[in-house]
Backbone:
């Protein structure tokens, strides 16, 4: 019996060294992170469900014990997409296609809904890179249909790098969890994280994360990368949210990424000549009609995806025939909201923002606002205005489409009327 206990511990030490090396290697990779978020209405009795530590002790493999997601009433869903990488055990994010990473926290990019950090690599680096983490062998079982060794662990607050933003506030927590590894190769199958000290002010009853890993073949060999992650939250009021996160399009880069401190990396090629469109030449309040270049499919589109549209008619200076934006000019930006509401009324929300103007290969900052259908918003109980400080989110247009269909496509050529904003300092 002593040998049966000692062998898993010896394998754990080898696994920790191997997985720390994998966490270090992750810092050379960048992946596309797609987050599908589902929001559920309150269910009576949720406040009496067992705490996260009880679910861990039970030996069950579901995240939030007693939460049947199939039986819950869905309120709405949304989707967002980012690029993610790891640097010095900290995750860095950017919008897809941006030429540089942003060093701000992810809550500065995503201001609505639950968002967490760590699933790409920070949890892995913290768990296997710190001697302060206490591991215990728990037994051999199956995960995902595969034989696996189960180890349980605890991470104290002073060693934790776990962060979660709730209602605009980041909280750093102690946590516990378990890992499952292949008995032969010591590959990590799954890493689970459960905070143990959720403060009442967080308004969260329970929270759990699970990250699935798989071996991916790359040009430089095989590497273990995160494949899927799940974040489940049960709020004190009985509402629940679930984030299903996938990582794909992973690539290895050779040079250091350039970090930026501004709001967003340019959407256009660096070195492109700039148009001479100062705020004086592009007054506030000019009407601009644009037509989408490509269709937006709500079933797959995500906040963060690049979009582009063409200016339909020439834009002229008031009381003058001077053309300040010619017809055919291109405006570029990103989707800001992709939501499907199903309860109590069914409708889609598509939010978009344009921040660059292109004319014959030259570029200029661009800002515009679409007012939105306020009467429709009132009848649907919809919110046209995303959260954000000051005027930062004034450069957004929010479109509502009431339909009972499970999917919605905003077609290429869709026209909308915007008015220009002051672009000083952009």
Residues:
């Amino acid at each position: 019996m002593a040998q049966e206990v000692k062998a898993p511990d010896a394998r754990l030490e080898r696994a920790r060294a191997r997985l720390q090396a994998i966490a270090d290697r992750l810092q050379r990779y960048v992946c596309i992170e797609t987050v599908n978020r589902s929001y559920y209405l309150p269910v009576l009795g949720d406040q009496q469900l067992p705490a996260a530590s009880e679910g861990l002790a039970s030996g069950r493999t579901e995240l939030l014990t007693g939460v049947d997601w199939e039986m819950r009433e869905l309120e709405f869903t949304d989707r967002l997409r980012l690029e993610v990488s790891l640097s010095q055990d900290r995750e860095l994010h950017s919008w897809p296609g941006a030429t540089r990473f942003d060093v701000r926290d992810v809550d500065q990019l995503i201001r609505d809904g639950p968002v967490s950090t760590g699933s790409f690599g920070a949890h892995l680096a913290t768990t296997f890179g710190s001697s302060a983490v206490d591991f215990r062998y728990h037994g051999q079982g199956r995960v995902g249909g595969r034989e696996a060794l189960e180890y349980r662990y605890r991470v104290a607050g002073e060693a934790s790098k776990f962060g979660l933003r709730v209602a605009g506030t980041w909280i750093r927590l102690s946590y516990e969890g378990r890992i499952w590894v292949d008995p032969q190769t010591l590959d990590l199958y799954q890493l689970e994280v459960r905070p143990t000290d959720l403060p009442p002010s967080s308004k969260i009853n329970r929270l759990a994360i699970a990250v699935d890993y798989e071996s991916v073949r790359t040009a430089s060999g095989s590497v273990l990368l995160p494949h899927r992650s799940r974040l489940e939250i049960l709020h004190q009021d009985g509402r629940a949210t679930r984030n299903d996160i996938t990582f794909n399009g992973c690539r290895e880069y050779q040079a250091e990424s350039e970090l930026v401190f501004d709001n967003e990396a340019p959407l256009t090629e660096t070195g492109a000549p700039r148009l001479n469109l100062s705020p004086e030449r592009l007054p506030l309040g000019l009407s601009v009609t644009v037509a989408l270049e490509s269709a937006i499919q709500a079933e797959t589109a995500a906040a963060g995806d690049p979009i582009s549209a063409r200016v339909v008619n020439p834009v002229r200076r008031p009381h003058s025939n001077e053309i300040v934006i010619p017809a055919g000019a291109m405006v570029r930006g990103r989707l800001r909201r992709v939501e499907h509401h199903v309860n109590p009324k069914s409708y889609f929300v598509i939010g978009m923002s344009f921040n660059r103007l292109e004319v014959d290969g030259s570029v200029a900052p661009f800002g515009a606002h679409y007012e939105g259908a306020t009467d429709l918003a009132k009848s649907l109980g919809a919110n046209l205005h995303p959260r954000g400080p000051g005027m930062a989110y004034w450069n957004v247009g929010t479109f509502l489409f009431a339909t009972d269909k499970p999917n919605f496509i905003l077609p290429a050529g869709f026209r909308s009327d915007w008015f220009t904003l002051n672009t000083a300092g952009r």
About this structure: The two ends are 69 Å apart (CA to CA).
